[in-house]
Amino acid sequence: MSASFTNQVLAQIELWTKGEQYDNAVHVLPKHLDEKVARLHLGRIGVKLTELAPDQADYIGVTPQGPFKPDHYRY
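The structure corresponding to this sequence follows.
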């Protein structure tokens, strides 16, 4: 539930600060914000995440900071 609330807060901040970039419609939370929530919560429960090395990121076609999945990807 905490992750859901954090997603909602970050979505509201995104709309408040970048509202002109969004039309009046339903939008999916941007992947970089969803992954930010995951990083914040995993750190809170003691999980240590490693970052991709540049060669690993190049191999799978992403930046080392993410996002790691395309926007259309669903978990």
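Residues 2-60 form one domain.
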